[in-house]
Design goal:
Number of helices: 7
Number of strands: 7
Helix content: 40-55%
Radius of gyration: 20 Å
Largest sheet: 5 strands, antiparallel
Structural class: alpha+beta
Length: 221
């Protein structure tokens, strides 16, 4: 029985793959239309920024970490001795309050030294980091789907979280939320190309491909 179900499931995915490929070829151009660079976003600090400003900040590539000085007019300093990989960062309690660590391999997150210890949070100066903040706000009803989609679509291919952005668009928003798997195919396909060893990318692609044939795979594999 289990073998039959496995074979049936495999056939479903194969058929879905063929269907999805046809849909991909028909919808690729429409899926990747340019975003509106003049669109503005409310930032966590109460200010607003346009999309082109957010993209420009992301493109600058952050230093390994920065120290936020007490004097806001003082220059930010860097410490090149800290590791380049986020997983290797040592939470040194001797570092000053306001110390901010941003690893090049994970610019969408930052670690801040506070009076209550270290705080790990999304980085609003990074387009994917801001998209993560807006996704939380969307779930709370304070941000729109359009804002989230625009930010996720603006994540450059060189960004470490590009694949994550593509599959969030394809599965979480276009398929699961908006019930439009046909439009989602190009995005999950790009997610697979960006992160071929990411199990989540394969799972989300399978869900989207199957959804194009009317099958619901909204469960954990």
């Amino acid at each position: 029985m289990k073998k039959r179900l496995a074979v049936l499931f495999g056939l479903v995915l194969i058929l879905a793959g063929f269907a999805a490929t046809s849909i991909y070829m028909a919808s690729e151009d429409a899926a990747f239309e340019p975003v509106d660079l003049t669109m503005t976003f409310a930032m966590p600090d109460g200010s607003t920024r346009s999309l082109d400003e957010i993209i420009a900040l992301t493109a600058e590539r952050f230093p390994t970490e920065t120290v936020t000085p007490a004097d806001p007019t003082a220059e930010t300093t860097t410490d090149a001795a800290q590791p380049q990989n986020a997983d290797d960062f040592v939470l040194d309690e001797s570092l000053p309050l306001g110390y901010v660590h941003i690893a090049p391999d994970l610019p969408s997150k930052r670690i801040i030294r506070t009076e209550n210890g270290w705080r790990f949070e999304s980085n609003p100066d990074d387009v994917y980091g801001l998209a993560s903040i807006k996704m939380d706000e969307m779930r709370a009803g304070t941000a729109t789907t359009e804002e989230v989609l625009t930010l996720l679509r603006s994540v450059p291919e060189s960004h470490p979280m590009f694949g994550h952005a593509q599959r969030h668009i394809g599965w979480s928003i276009l398929t699961k939320q908006q019930k439009e798997p046909g439009k989602a195919v190009p995005f999950v396909t790009r997610a697979l190309a960006a992160d071929p060893l990411d199990n989540n990318a394969w799972e989300d692609a399978a869900r989207v491909y199957a959804s194009t044939l009317g099958f619901n795979l909204d469960f954990e594999f």
